[in-house]
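Notes continue from the previous slide.

Worked example: a multi-chain complex. Inputs as given:
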Amino acid sequence: MEEPNLSYIHSLSGGDKVFEEKILSVIKLEFPLEKAVYYKNLENKNYMKAAENVHKLKHKISILGLERSYEIAIQYENNLKANNSSLKTEFNTVLQIITNYLNTL
Amino acid sequence: MNCIIIDDETTARIVINQLCSNSAGLTVIDEFSNAIQAIKYLNQNEVDLIFLDIHMPDFTGFDFIQSVKNPPKIILTTSDTNFAIQAFEYDCIVDYLVKPILLPRFEKAIQKAENASLRMNDSLSVDKVETTSGNDLYVNIDRRLIKIDMPSIYLIEAKGDYINVKTEDKNYTVHSTLKKIEEKLPDYLFLKIHRSYIINIKKIIDIEDNSVLIKKDVIPVSRSKRPELMKRLNLL
């Protein structure tokens, strides 16, 4: 499984540390909250709401340079909209990898 | 170009702000987490360009475009690729950026927006509104020059690439811009009170808060234009 990285953030920052710190602090703040809402909707089998949560989370996935995981998120969002939870395990693994990574920052 | 950002995601707004800061000649004057706030802002302020997310709760980017009268140039910023065809049904949309947005692609979109501005400026030099003589204004409609008595005009409104000239007797739709016709109108009679409206101040019936009643039309007054309007009135 690929690992999160800061290549996209660095490509935007051009060395601007203020920007880097700002975006990472927002991700660290919002990601656990969005993840919790997603799990709750998934538990309640509210797949349309869970799809909206995945939609929001997938931008953060892309910001953290997870290209293949982003593709999984796109497909999983479409599955949820079709009331189908295929790729749930793969997507949840991505969320755990990001959680672990953010804890190291 | 002055621009605003409309996106419900904080991270998306931060990214677009950063991309804008790397682009000379682009100034972010405000940002909004929902489209309704942005509509209220645009009722009072003019901007050249909007970065607009499509997928927002309650009120989508397309809802926003349909709600704004004479929207400025818009660059859509979205994680969805499914709306591209729908997007280009709107003349105001100059590009469609898919997140994550990379700097070279962003710069290309800005270039498109700038080119769209240049095309608009070029069209100003084409005489759709012909020279005036005394109180007469000649407008080019279907290859005919039609004379309009200027004092009879009570309202001119922008409609995309056209302007709608309303007179006591008749309305005329002319392929021109407010800026072009504004140059031909006498200052003592006409005033631009909003980015989309020029009014004949002699035809005002009443003014209430940020709007003017003129004939049967209620016209918004931009916050920036209100002092000039008040100055032109014979206030007791």
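Summary box: The two ends of chain A are 19 Å apart (CA to CA). Chain A has a mean pLDDT of 95.
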